[in-house]
Structure formats: structure tokens, C-alpha cells
Amino acid sequence: MILVGDVGATKTLLEVGTLREGRWRPAFGRRYGAVDHPSFDSLLQAFFHEWVAQRRAGEEITRACFGVAGPMFDNRVQMTNLAWVVDGSAICAGFGIPHVRVVNDFAAAASGIEMLHDADLVALQPGEPIAAAPRVVIGAGTGLGVAYLIWAGGGYQVIAGEAGHAGFAPSTLEQFELWRDLYSRHGRVAVERVVSGPGLVRIHEFIERCEGRPAAPADELRVSVTPAAITHAALQSGDPLCVRALDMFVSCYGAVAGDHALAVMARGGVYVAGGIAPKILPRLLEGGFLAVFNARGAHSDAVRKIPVSVVTNERLGLLGAALITARR
């Protein structure tokens, strides 16, 4: 049996199963909130307690792979937005699993793209795909993840890093004012300080300040305002401030995705993954995302030929982790 995990700063998905004939077949799975556990080991202990209670006789976990939100070194990830360490060697020793691999969460997500079905994707732009051309996988959630898929040796090879922590580049005057506001409060403005769930809250608070409303403390987000609340108010109630915040978020998201698509001329496709995109899909389909994505100056016509899809399957990272484990 294989254990796979998608370990994020807000939630963790774990599944035990097998990979047969190119299809992941889960036998047992659980979803956990990060706030409920002081460490990944604590969460894993809770999962094993539940799995052991219902597993069939003779079932043993022989391999595991965890996609974890943070940079990976020496089979170990110190998470960026959560005070957890996920250490493959320590998990081998502590839980008796012979082979444990720890990878960046978007290395897993990118690996899972080939496991998706048509029903897992919603096209924003059909484009004109080219076989074996580069692909980009990008996704906003608690942070922002990015990975490239580059064709080499008869298949796609994953290149994952920490592009969410590159500098944010404003593409409009309003975004420049947002950058200046955030810089005055936080210093250097990384992309995920804007394009993420907390980033949506920061954009909302920036708009409130522009309207003369009281400002939150410089290093805090107002706990009463959440990404989900802003999204609901924008999409369901038409709240003007929330609509403005969501539209600016979508514009920033499209600009960042377009930058990465242009960087590798991703004619193999851009896949917008992560937890936020499916929740704001109606807004993404309205065209604001693509308008900025395609605004690439001399290369705008070329970028319009790049296929762009939203991944609606939240188990993308699990599928990729299963594939990585089976191949290694």
C-alpha cells in the first residue's frame, strides 16, 4: 500500500491506496485542519490510529510520498506558512515505513496533471496547444505555488521552486498604489502577499483604506474578514468593496500567471490549481483574468494561443504524489 499526502498551511489531505493501470485507487482517506495539530507527526499519528482500526488483515504501508508547502532539501521541508517540519527520514524511523519521499507541494501538483480527466478541468482559453511544449501549474491558496513541466527524455520533467516569493510587479496604477501601501507597511512585497487567500484580505483592507475606513495594524489581518467572506459577499451579495477587491485579486492573479506563461512560452498549457480558483470560477470565466493574462505587449497574440484551464479536482497533489512514489 502507498500513503500519499498533500500538506498545506491550512489543510492536509492523506490517502492510502494503490496505483494500478495508471489509476490511483484510494482505500482510505482523511482531511485534517492544520489548526487541530501542533505538528505533522501529531497529525500522522491521528491518521494511523484511524487507518489501523479499519484496515484489512495483511495491509501494510510500504511507501509514502508527501507534497508539502515549502522548499525541499534533503528529503525534508520546513513549511513556509506553518511551523511544521516534514522529514522523510524521521517518518521512516518513527512510523516504520520503508520508503518515504518528501517533495514540494507543487512538484506533486505538477506531477498529477497527467492523471486528470476532462471533468477535472474547466477551460478559460482553449488556445492552440503544442505537444511536448512547456506547461505551467500555478495555484493560490494560503500561499502561491508555481511549477513548470518541461519535456525531456520522452516525458515531462517537473521544475518546482518558490516563485510565490518572487517580487510582486504591479501591472496597473491601482496595483502600484497597492504595492506602495503594502511596502510601507511590510517592506518587500512578495507575489503571495497579494495573490493568496491572505492577499485577498490585504487587497480588501487596502480598498477600505482608500475609502477612508480605519486601517488594521501593520502586521495583522482583521480576523473578522476572511477570503471566504469576501468572495461570498462579492459573488452572492454584490457588495461593492468586495467586488472591487475580488476583481483586483483576479487581475493580479492573471498578471502573475501570464508572466510565468510567457517565461517559458507555455504552449503545452497553463493549469490554474490551488484552493481559491474553483471557488471564484464564475469570476474567472467572466474574462478579467484572461484580459490581463494575454496583455503581453508584442507577444500578446502568441500568449492567446496558450491553453488555460482551471483544475477543479482538489486531490491533484495526491494524484501526483502517488505517481511520484510509483515511479521512484
Describe this protein's structure.
The protein is of the alpha/beta class. It folds into 2 domains: 2-111 and 315-327, 2-Layer Sandwich (Nucleotidyltransferase, domain 5); 118-312, Hexokinase, domain 1, CATH 3.40.367. Helix content is 37%, strand content 25%. It has 11 helices and 14 strands. The chain has helices spanning 40-54, 88-95, 105-112, 173-186, 197-210, 227-237, 240-264, 281-285, 288-293, 300-303, 316-327, and strands spanning 2-7, 11-20, 23-33, 63-68, 72-73, 76-78, 85-87, 99-104, 121-125, 135-140, 144-152, 155-160, 269-273, 308-311. The strands form 3 sheets. Strands 9-14-13-10-11-12 form a 6-stranded mixed β-sheet, with helices on both faces. Strands 3-2-1-4-8 form a 5-stranded mixed β-sheet, with helices on both faces. Helix 3 packs across helix 11 (316-327) and helix 5 packs across helix 7 (240-264). The longest helix is centred in the last third of the chain and has 25 residues, at 240-264. It starts with a strand and ends with a helix. The model has no long low-confidence stretch (mean pLDDT 94).
List the helices and strands and how they pair.
Blueprint: E1 2-7, E2 11-20, E3 23-33, H1 40-54, E4 63-68, E5 72-73, E6 76-78, E7 85-87, H2 88-95, E8 99-104, H3 105-112, E9 121-125, E10 135-140, E11 144-152, E12 155-160, H4 173-186, H5 197-210, H6 227-237, H7 240-264, E13 269-273, H8 281-285, H9 288-293, H10 300-303, E14 308-311, H11 316-327
Parallel strand pairs: 1-4, 4-8, 10-13, 13-14
Antiparallel strand pairs: 1-2, 2-3, 5-6, 6-7, 9-14, 10-11, 11-12
